[in-house]
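Supplementary Methods, section 5.1.

A reviewer requested that the exact input to the structure prediction be made available. We therefore reproduce it here, unchanged from the version used in the analyses.
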Amino acid sequence: MKIAYFDCFSGISGDMTLGALVDAGVAPEVLKTELAKLSVDAEFSLHFEKAMKHGITGTRAVVTVKDALHGHAPGHAHGRHLADIFRLLDDSGLEAEICDTAKRIFDRLAEAEAKVHDTDKAQVHLHEVSGIDSIVDIVGSVIGLARLGVEAVYASPLSLGRGFVRCAHGLMPVPVPGTLALLHGIPVHQTDIPRELVTPTGAALITTLAAEFGVMPQMTLDRVGYGAGTRDLAERPNLLRICLGEKKKA
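The structure derived from this sequence is encoded token-by-token as follows.
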């Protein structure tokens, strides 16, 4: 059985996941072709670049969004509802299995945000995690895992940062409440790094996809991919490592 082990020694985000999958062998053009099936309301481009973190080379995924009306990159301007994202996926023409997996990830995000804001998941505005860049990161990661033939996902305990980060709702403690709501029952440890290491998008991806959290399962290692984060960390390489290989079926 082909598996992927997510080694989250510097946390996890959507763009780091997408970068690591390309670094592990997913063809960028395949991702771009599939993601072009999403009929989003603004133009976006996706490219990948090499980045060095503490002497280790990884791949960084960069999503650039151009607002159709104003010609700028809004990034997180949209506060879509869960139904809006489901409709986007249903109308995309993407494979049913990819759409279903992406829906499960967004559904977990909506449940977490609804819990934090004491509302129903159908009513909650997803803000940062419903922007085009986040949609591309999540759907692209699901496509990437499918193209690599991954049958099961495993992950290490998650490294968390500390401090504060500014979000749509104002200044929030790190990890932000939405992230913590996603991490119930998941092994974590907090570092002294004053940065947001696990983003809501990353938390939703890995908690939806991973069958187990812990040490790397016994496997025959095939390839390794490194996804680079945007920031440089003094304390450790800001990378997500994905190990691919064969796990013997029980």
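Confidence is low (pLDDT under 50) at residues 68-77. These observations are discussed further in the main text.
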